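Z., the sequence and structure:
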Amino acid sequence: MKRFSLLFRKTSPVILMLASTCLFAQVSKSSQTNNNRMQIIQNNRARLTELYVDVLNNRKFERLHEFISDDYVSGNNKTGVDAFKEPALAVLKAIPDAQWEIQNLVVDESNAFVHWKVVGINTGAFLVFAPSGKNVVAEGMGIFRLSNGKVISSQVMTDRLGFLQQLGVLPEDITTLSADRISPEAVVFIDKFVIPDGSLTEFTNRLDVNRKMISTMPGFIDDYAYERKDEHGNTIVITVAIWKDEQALQRAKTNVQELYKNEGFNPAAMMQRLNIQMDRATYTFRGLN
């Protein structure tokens, strides 16, 4: 018993020292891991802030490759740096003085949530809609995945309804778009245009003129315009004009032709010159039974 006690006294400091060393190593490793994690988070936060506040707001698009991976994938599965830049350019076309203001930014090692506002004046065309000259505040949010300090994918959601309402494209009370306000006698005049890339600007300028023209005519109820790109790079534009009845539509057609004549404008010649294909038809309104 005495020999065992002496042995314990001799070896216990060594054992304690080894145990302490192991414990210190574990604590040190955990602390280092935590420090690395915090450094990555701080770096991701700083880079996303710089992406919006400096690169987008100051139009330094040549720096996008510093923040966006070459393998970036957007929410609609487009790839590359240009896939990130494309929606930003669409905003700037409609709001040339746009400024992004970060409202909330939550970041971890590989993910980020960004809530922003875009503020500015709508002095540029948006799709086929003429500039409204109105101040707009458009909100949006994005969920980003990051790797090595670069964005590799994103899912972006924006308040498109609010944006279109601010532009005046849609009414503030969208219930006024209900089919209940359209009588059974109403007719819908629908045009479909297939427009080559080089002809789009002249076409949309003329479309803006025509839409303003018909909006002042008796029997006009409302109109809409939609566009998309086809697989050949052409722009497909659909225009929809709703008239009180067939008589109102026919009067409008007569008035438009008279205005064209006074202006010296030949729409058929323009379509042929710009190589634009058009399909036109009149529909009656069909509500739900």
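The CA atoms of residues 229 and 235 lie 5 Å apart. The helical segments are 2-56, 81-94, 160-167, 200-214, 246-263, 267-273.

Let me know what you think.
H.
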